[in-house]
Write a structure and sequence with these properties.
CATH architecture of the largest domain: 3-Layer(aba) Sandwich
Distance between the termini: 21 Å
Helix content: 25-40%
Radius of gyration: 17 Å
Structural class: alpha/beta
Order of helices and strands: EHEHEEEEHHEHEHEH
């Protein structure tokens, strides 16, 4: 599939478009109907991506799997990151930001180690030790609640692409155009983003009327509904 950007006409640079993540997911799913059924798989980046992905999976009648990727936090600002860690341990660093922040190798190693510990904990919580399903030759839809710096999504995509899927589609309700272009250029993925934003500063939360931190309990309840909290990996 040739990479492309699918967006909602007239929604560029708009704010407060979505009631919440679930509502955004239902709208996003309408742009993905050509992937309905078949051998596709929806992968959700917790925590905020899970309510979005669940609505996509329901509409398209596809299985849902959590994809655990964690940002590597800046030591003095845990809300921001300078890279991301993929499930297989591969580290993707925002090298220009690392240079700008003046991070030392020791600081980087310490933050990566802390992120790896957190990723293992999240894997156990949300996947219960289950291995990831085989994705070779499959169509993958990777969902999150927004695309800001893009490094978490990039780490997720590179992890999946190493396994040679047939197609990879990024599905996000809102995203920064510069980041969307960078993700497409780096991975060849198609991006479906309803609310493309061209101006900085950009905040994912600005697209939602109800924005909140998604609790682990909500994530686990959604995964339980899809039968993906325990048991063997999906291979359909």
């Amino acid at each position: 599939m040739k990479p492309e950007l699918r967006e909602e006409s007239g929604w560029r640079d708009q704010s407060r478009l979505f009631a919440d993540r679930a509502a955004a997911g239902r709208l996003l799913a309408q742009k993905l109907l050509d992937f309905q059924g078949g051998d596709g798989l929806v992968l959700a980046i917790p925590a905020g991506g899970v309510p979005v992905a669940a609505e996509i999976a329901r509409t398209l009648r596809l299985p849902l799997e959590p994809l655990i990727v964690r940002k590597v936090q800046i030591p003095w600002n845990t809300e921001a990151g300078f890279g991301a860690l993929a499930p297989d341990g591969q580290v993707l660093l925002n090298e220009p930001l690392v240079q700008a922040l003046g991070l030392t190798p020791t600081q980087i190693e310490a933050q990566v180690a802390a992120t790896r510990r957190n990723l293992i904990q999240r894997e156990e919580l949300f996947r219960g030790g289950r291995p990831y399903p085989k994705v070779t030759g499959r169509t993958l839809i990777v969902a999150d609640d927004g695309l800001a710096s893009g490094y978490t999504m990039l780490a997720a995509l590179k992890f999946l692409i190493r396994q040679q899927p047939k197609d990879v589609v990024v599905a996000v309700p809102t995203g920064l155009l510069d980041t969307i272009k960078a993700v497409m250029a780096a991975t060849g993925a198609t991006v479906v983003c309803l609310n493309v934003c061209t101006r900085r500063p950009f905040a994912v939360a600005a697209a939602y009327r109800r924005w909140y931190d998604v609790a682990d309990a909500e994530v686990m309840q959604i995964l339980k509904e899809f039968g993906r909290q325990e048991g063997p990996p999906a291979d359909v």
